[in-house]
């Protein structure tokens, strides 16, 4: 982690990339209800971390008093606005009924309202690359076009669903499809930048030995890693996240956070939201340059 402290705009010490993968937006949705029921079963039968009473409470809410689809997005934008931060939301595009597909359709009016909220706040909308569209330039291009048609956005960035990634093959397909940056490079089961990459980089093309045209924004901390893979909670989760983030702050690199929208405003996942709020407060105190993925990638290009 050897980034210069003066590589960012306004001589900020480090950069901050906040992002959210949008896998679902509807509270009253069949897959959401079934997933919660299965979560209760795993808690009781397999000892999965969680709260049966709070999960059952969520099931009741889904059936009788579902959250408005926009609520979690308003909450995220409000949390970030406290510090003058803006973020990027990656919208999933894949068959609705597929096992790992989105739990919404791009044409639903709620998503249009959510997109308007994000754009009005100065945020960015990118593509969350579908599980069934992995590493296919034609499918990636279809996803960009689908977002353009449905939401009126020209997506410059992508992150693959479940962090699916296979090196140069992934980057080449994304670049061919017209993406300017990727944000997939990370590990689901561990914190900190993959391969020690603490700042953006242009991947090397193994066929030519030169640099590819796409910029990679490596991931630092993901909510699912903290709370699902590492099974942390409360102060322990915050401490672990900060230990992954602090060396990058000190080195003047890029801190990249990923928090899923559907874990906000839910009592069972209060730790997830609290940890995000605390992390942002600590980072804000160190005065980062916080920008969307597209802005960070564009800045990085000016340095080469």
Write the SSE topology.
Layout: E1 15-22, H1 30-46, H2 52-64, H3 71-81, E2 87-93, H4 109-120, E3 124-129, H5 137-151, E4 157-160, H6 168-176, E5 181-182, E6 215-216, E7 221-222, H7 223-229, H8 234-251, E8 254-258, H9 270-284, E9 289-290, H10 293-302
Helix pairs in contact: 1-2, 5-6, 8-9
Short structural summary:
This protein is α/β, with parallel strands linked by helices and 304 residues long. Helix content is 42%, strand content 12%. The protein contains ten helices and nine strands.
Describe this structure in words.
This protein is of the alpha/beta class and 304 residues long. 42% of the residues lie in helices and 12% in strands. The chain has 10 helices and 9 strands. Helix 4 (109-120) links the parallel strand 2 and strand 3 (124-129). The protein starts with 14 loop residues before the first strand and ends with a helix. The mean pLDDT is 96.
Distance between the amino and carboxyl termini: 19 Å
Structural class: alpha/beta
The number of helices is 10
Elements, N to C (H/E) = EHHHEHEHEHEEEHHEHEH
Largest sheet: 9 strands, parallel
Rounded to an integer in angstroms, the radius of gyration calculated over CA atoms is 19 Å
Principal-axes shape call: globular
């Amino acid at each position: 982690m050897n980034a210069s402290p003066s590589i960012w705009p306004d001589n900020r010490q480090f950069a901050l990339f906040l992002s959210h993968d949008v896998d679902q937006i509807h509270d009253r949705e069949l897959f959401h209800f079934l997933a919660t029921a299965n979560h209760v079963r795993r808690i009781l039968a397999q000892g999965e971390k969680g709260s049966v009473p709070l999960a059952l409470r969520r099931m009741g809410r889904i059936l009788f008093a579902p959250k408005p689809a926009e609520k979690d997005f308003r909450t995220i934008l409000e949390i970030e606005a406290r510090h003058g931060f803006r973020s990027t939301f990656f919208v999933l595009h894949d068959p609705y009924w597929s096992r790992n597909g989105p739990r919404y359709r791009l044409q639903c009016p709620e998503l249009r309202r959510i997109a308007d909220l994000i754009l009005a706040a100065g945020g960015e909308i990118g593509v969350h690359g579908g599980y069934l569209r992995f590493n296919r330039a034609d499918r990636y291009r279809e996803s960009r076009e689908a977002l353009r048609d449905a939401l009126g956005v020209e997506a410059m960035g992508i992150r693959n669903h479940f962090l699916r990634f296979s090196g140069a093959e992934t980057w080449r397909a994304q670049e061919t499809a017209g993406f300017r940056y990727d944000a997939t490079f990370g590990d689901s089961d561990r914190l900190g930048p993959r391969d020690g990459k603490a700042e953006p980089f242009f991947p090397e093309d193994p066929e030519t030995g030169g640099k590819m045209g796409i910029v990679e924004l490596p991931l630092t901390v993901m909510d699912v890693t903290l709370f699902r893979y590492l099974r942390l909670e409360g102060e322990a989760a915050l401490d672990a996240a900060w230990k992954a983030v602090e060396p990058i702050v000190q080195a003047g690199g890029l801190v990249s956070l990923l928090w899923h929208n559907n874990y906000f405003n839910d009592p069972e996942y209060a730790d997830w939201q609290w940890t995000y709020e605390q992390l942002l407060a600590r980072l804000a105190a160190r005065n980062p340059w916080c920008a969307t993925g597209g802005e960070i990638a564009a800045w990085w290009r000016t340095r080469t």
